[in-house]
Amino acid sequence: MWPYFFIVFSILLLQIEFSKKNTNKIRYSLAFLLLFSFAALRGNGNGDYFSYLKYSTFITSIDNVLNSNFPMEIGFRIISYVVNKLGIHQQAVIVIMNLISLICIYKFIENYSPDKILSILFFLPIYFQFDMHAARTAVAIGISTFSFKYLHQRKPLKYLLVILLASFFHKTAMILIIMYFVGNIKINRYLGLMSILGASLLTKFVSFSSVILHMLKFFRLNSFAHRYYIYTQSQAYGYSYKLYDPRLFLVIGIYTLAKILLDNSDELQNLLINYIWMNALLMIIFSEHTVFVTRLTCYFNIYTIILIPYIISNHRIISNRTLYNLTKLSYIYIYISYILALLSGAVEYKLFFI
């Protein structure tokens, strides 16, 4: 387990500014270099790591790339085809996917976070869940963050094009289409919390899973419906997600604090808050099957890494140094606990060339 702890400790250490010189850019770049190297050189995983290596060997022709029946999306097939044509190690498929994913997140944090180094710490749970195991989803998450700009600017065509590009690595990215309809509206704090509570109560009487399956069939999205049904029947992934799960409470807590402390008239902050509101709602709506909570809400959960630093940097908190330090340390403590809980079941870290 020590390699994982080394990464977490390194990111924690990089939170400290040891020099009076402005070293933020250096620390920020070093943090991502560490994350990229750790993910790209791995030779083990409990997600799709070995499946990626296996399936990538099958993509040896343009016909394979264009085969829509292949179990991996076209983005993966293109990367695999290039790697096979160059005749290099199959690990290059993993390396390229991690590179795309982390470059996208690097730019996303750089463009929007008021505390970039802190955002990296809050990114670690997503990193360990996806970049280290489900790299296709990680790439889709990374690419999808570029859609945030176009939703903020109300450019629907560009927004949809980015989501389409993200779906070339994982079709689940299409879930972000719903943000086009709610992203820029202003939702009253109490209405937002009541909707979360109402959705929780409805899960006791309504099977959202059945409703979603019928909707997919009604709109003739048969391939999505078939895959959705398979996941619901899976013993490994189809079990229910508990509504008392600490991760749901964390998201609701972030949403509530943001509504109290941030300026809802600021379009950027309002949009970030709406992503987290939708995140909480979807965690509840898909709670019948854990796989959908983890695989679908990650496209919304990624915005917490920007929203939390906004909460901490709020003028009501930052004007009081003691309150600022207490708030920041509280979030760090919560996320370190979250990360350690994730790592408790982590597979042994191995380098791919050993």
Number of helices: 21
- Round the Cα radius of gyration to an integer and report it: 20 Å
Order of helices and strands: HHHHHHHHHHHHHHHHHHHHH
* Major pleated sheet: none
Explain this structure to me?
With 354 residues, the chain is an all-alpha fold. It contains 21 helices and no strands. It has helices at residues 2-13, 24-40, 49-56, 62-65, 74-86, 91-112, 116-131, 135-144, 147-152, 156-167, 179-182, 189-202, 208-218, 222-233, 246-261, 267-285, 290-296, 298-301, 304-312, 315-318, 321-343. It is globular and about 60 Å long. α7 (116-131) packs antiparallel against α19 (304-312).
Outline of this structure?
With 354 residues, the chain is mainly α. The chain has 21 helices and no strands.
